[in-house]
Every structure is written in C-alpha cells, then in structure tokens.
Write a structure and sequence with these properties.
The protein contains 13 helices and 20 strands. It starts with 10 loop residues before the first strand and ends with a helix.
Length: about 400
C-alpha cells in the first residue's frame, strides 16, 4: 500500500498541468529529529512521524535507516534515523536524498543543532546563518527545536538534546548547486520557510536570486554584473577588461532583480544580455519569459522604423521568428540603418531600466548576439565597467 504523507491532494497548476507538491529538506530534518528523539527516550523504533509544517499542513513521513545505540548498561545513548526528501514535481537536485538526524542527551536544557557530513558550512557573510555555522536555515532550526521539545515534553524529559543533521549525498549534490559560489562549502543547505515545496515556484527562484545578491553585496559588491542566463555568462567571460568578481544571473526576472538590488542598497548594475531577452526590455517588459510576453519581432521592427528603414525591410523583420534572424534581415536589407537601430534599442533599454529603479542606482546594459557578437550598449556602460573594475581593485 502506498504511504500517505498528507500531500496527496495538494497540487499546483502550471501551464495547464497539475504538479505535485513535496516537502523541504528542512521538513525532513525536523521529522527525522523528532523520530530520533522519540527513539532516544523510549528505545523503541519509530517507523512514521507526524510533522506540522509552518504552512499549516500536517505531514506523516516514513522513517528510514534507524540505528539505536546503547551503552554498556543497556541504556540508549544515541539514536539516528533518516527521512527521504520528496520534492514533488519540482526539478530539484536534492529530490530522493536521505536527511539524517543523530540525537543524544546533553547537560542543560537546550536543543543544540549542528551539521555533519554533507551539510554545508557558511564561509561568507550575507546568508541566513552567520559565518562558521552549519547551513541550516532559521526556519528549519526552529522546526527541529520545536519538534524535539514536543517529544521531550511527551516523555517528561527536561534535559538538553544535541542534534546533528547529516546528508551524506549532499557532498556530491552541492556541486550541482550555487552553494560553492555563495560561500557554503562541504555540502548542501537545509532550507524551507513553509516546509512545503511548491513546484516550479517563481517566488522561490526570486528568493534564491536575492540570497546570491545578498552574499555579493555583503562581500563588497556595490556594483554588480548581471546576466539573464548561460549565454550572457559565457559572453561576459569572453569580454576583455571586465572584472567578474561580483557577477550573477537573474534568469527572466529583470524587474524583480532591480527591485531586490534597490532594496538592498546596491549602487549599480551592468546587465549583459542576449538581444533575444533584452529586446523585450526595450518595450518595458521586465519579465522576459515567453509565457509572459514576446513581441520580439514587433519591437525589433519598431526600433528599425525609428532608425529609418524602409517599409519592405520592416515587414521582413516583422515576419521573422528569432532576433538572430531579424538581425540578418536588417543587415542585408538596410545595412546603413543597422547601427542606428542598435542605438535606438539600447536607448529604449536604458530608459526602461532607469524607469524601474527610478534613478536609485546607476544601471546600464550591453547587448550581444550569439552570431554577431556585441551589438550595442547604453551610454553609461563604459562608465559602469570602470567603476566595477575599480571597485574590485580596491577590495
């Protein structure tokens, strides 16, 4: 019989598909800690544990890999068990891994929490935990503490409990995450603010952008180089004379990234972006995912018309399917208007970037094509490069 966790009827609708929800590494750590504490205090194995998540959803999670250790007097000295991560239909490198908790009694009345094998250690400021701590975020720590205290109260135990969370597979999984770049070394983070994984959550993606930005900012990144994705990252790494110490990606969330930077106090951003993404920004579109808006051909055509191309060329640009194709049409049909069109696009991009931040920071962009290389830049791009390079030399 299939185990019922409590999430069987919880789905997220995404692009007309029902995506199954899951539970976080934080929920796994808290549930394993509750189960291990019960076994420590009773000596009896626990095969399933109930956990109330911060979201208010009660989970019933199976317990695996149980080990109960006894001393020479036959008393339980420590207990270890694991709960397997289930991220639902969310694409997550941690899905299916075991999150272990080892507990033992200690003097005092505190619940002391640390990380073991496969749990990262914080080495840079700006994260949820201070430098030196295990990368177990505040909400999972609170969940672990509450769960352990609940079990202790049930069995009349008033002493302290030492909890060590370990995720053996986390050593390898961490290499597939941003953790090394963020300054979390040796493993993955134990995360979760609600205890529940919402599949493909844009909010979670934006939060992760904010976390990475916070680390860069706290470590001296007053001015940032930001690319939407892999194309921009590759192009920026091939640009001579640009220091990329404080570089990050923003995916499609251009507007939200600017908002995060403004709130944080970032002084400037230089975006380096493929024309296929930032042609949309030239029309004030601040989420560049095709699901939200396209208008690439329309915006390319408008810029070309403003630059003075003839109607025949404009119609051909309007009929293109990609920006790379549109550039070919423009270069062939109106080569004398090519540079002016790029300048017009960059002016519009600059206008809407400034409009988003309301002048709160120095913000600009460099646009490129995968085929044609650099296409153009905003008027302040070179100034930003100088500031970025100077900033990094001063560190």
């Amino acid at each position: 019989m299939e185990h019922k966790t409590g999430l069987e009827d919880m789905y997220v609708l995404k692009n007309h598909k029902r995506l199954r929800c899951g539970y976080t590494t934080g929920s796994c750590a808290a549930a394993a800690s509750k189960a291990a504490t019960a076994m420590l205090l009773t000596g009896d194995e626990v095969e399933e544990i109930a956990l109330m998540t911060p979201k208010g959803i009660l989970l019933h999670l199976p317990v695996e890999s149980i080990t109960i250790t006894k001393d020479e007097h036959g008393s339980v000295s420590e207990a270890t068990c694991a709960v397997r991560k289930d991220g639902g239909d969310d694409p997550d490198a941690t899905n299916g891994i075991l999150v272990f908790s080892r507990v033992r009694m200690i003097p005092g009345q505190e619940v002391c929490i640390d990380g073991g094998l496969g749990v990262g250690r914080v080495t840079k400021p700006g994260l949820n935990q201070p430098v030196g701590n295990a990368a177990i975020n505040s909400t999972p720590r609170a969940m672990i503490t509450e769960g352990v205290k609940e079990i202790c109260a049930q069995h009349g135990y008033t002493g302290g409990i030492d909890v060590e969370i370990s995720i053996p597979e986390g050593v390898e999984v961490a290499k597939k995450t941003f953790n090394p770049r963020l300054g979390i070394l040796g493993g993955i983070s134990v995360l979760g603010t609600s205890g529940i994984v919402m599949p493909m959550s844009e909010e979670a993606l934006i939060r992760s952008i904010g976390v990475e930005m916070g680390v860069l900012y706290k470590n001296g990144g007053q001015y940032l180089v930001i690319t939407p994705g892999n194309y921009g990252e590759t192009f920026s790494h091939n640009m001579p004379g640009l220091d990329l110490t404080y570089e990050m990606k923003c995916s499609n969330f251009v507007g939200q990234t600017i908002d995060l930077a403004e709130e944080m106090g970032v002084k400037g951003i230089l975006f380096i972006a493929h024309i296929g993404k930032f042609i949309k920004v030239s029309g004030g579109i601040m989420n560049t995912h095709s699901r939200d808006a396209d208008c690439r051909a329309e915006l390319m055509t408008t810029a070309a018309l403003r630059a003075g191309v003839d109607l025949d060329t404009a119609q051909k640009i309007l009929a293109t399917n990609t920006t790379e194709e549109a550039l070919d049409v423009l270069a062939e049909g109106a080569p004398d208007k090519y540079e002016a069109t790029m300048e017009e696009i960059c002016r519009r991009v600059h206008f809407y970037l400034n409009n988003r931040c309301k002048g709160a920071m120095e913000i600009g962009a460099i646009l490129f094509s995968s085929v044609r290389g650099k296409l153009g830049e905003t008027d302040n791009a070179q100034k930003l490069i100088e500031i970025i390079n100077s900033q990094n030399c001063d560190q």
